[in-house]
């Protein structure tokens, strides 16, 4: 087939005239001081979406004599790099430790920006990430597109085996719990009494339940409430200056959620109907409440149905 030279040149000219692809926006890293030598980066109180680049989790920066410590690392390589640069500029010290509180990708995909040897997590979290991390990574790429460019699944290289770590005289208690996931890490800064709760704590933001065990979550909240702490950084939502409000609010939501979905199954509602049930007025200020109720229906409803409505087979001959 003969191709007309003018047609070919016109096509090439059209390609050359195409504008360059716009660079994706940068993550905005805004640390706010919440205690002596501790800053919080408040994630977006919204679902993961391109508008926020998946940066919905709260991050803690802790200045220690031995270097900078981070609690969680955000959703992507690009976020992790921006976080590292901002944290080291803030403290004037290199990052020496990154804790990952649990397996979910908004908290841990940013560790791709760090040497795995300085990234610490509970052994259960490392195993969870090994099992499910690739699936989470694929989902993040589909949701966030170019925000995730270059991000690969990296496993923490430092399993947590002790209940504390000392950084030149600044001691952090490491508390192994579960409930939001199979392995949830909370941290307590002994100098200030500040608790970093990970996703065991939500504050003015509805809790998410994709890997939740609600009974274990309640037990973990009991343990956190009993700690001698003063303030709290939740996994999502604003800083809690009381240290107890996020604990109480999270418990209230998961108690209401389980009772409501159990009653819905007993009433014969399907999953769509359950997702449209009214949300109590006391949760009116919670961000993403309807969204998380509907997600929780998909996460929890089949298990409740299996428990309350067991299959009854005909007896064997």
Looking at the structure, what is the overall shape? globular
Number of strands: 12
Contiguous uncertain segments of 5+ residues = 1-21
Within the largest sheet, what's the order of strands?
1-2-3-4-5-6-7
Given the helix and strand composition, which structural class is it?
A: alpha/beta
* Helix/strand order, N-terminal first: HEEEEHEHEHEEEEEHEHHH
Contiguous helical run count: 8
Query: Main β-sheet, in a few words?
Result: 7 strands, mixed
Question: How would you explain this protein's 3D organization?
Answer:
The chain is α/β, with parallel strands linked by helices. It has eight helices and twelve strands. The strands form two sheets. A seven-stranded mixed β-sheet has the order 1-2-3-4-5-6-7. A five-stranded mixed β-sheet has the order 8-9-10-11-12. Helix 5 (214-226) packs antiparallel against helix 6 (245-266) and helix 6 crosses helix 8. 42% of the residues are buried.
Would you kindly provide a brief summary of this structure?
With 317 residues, the protein is α/β, with parallel strands linked by helices.
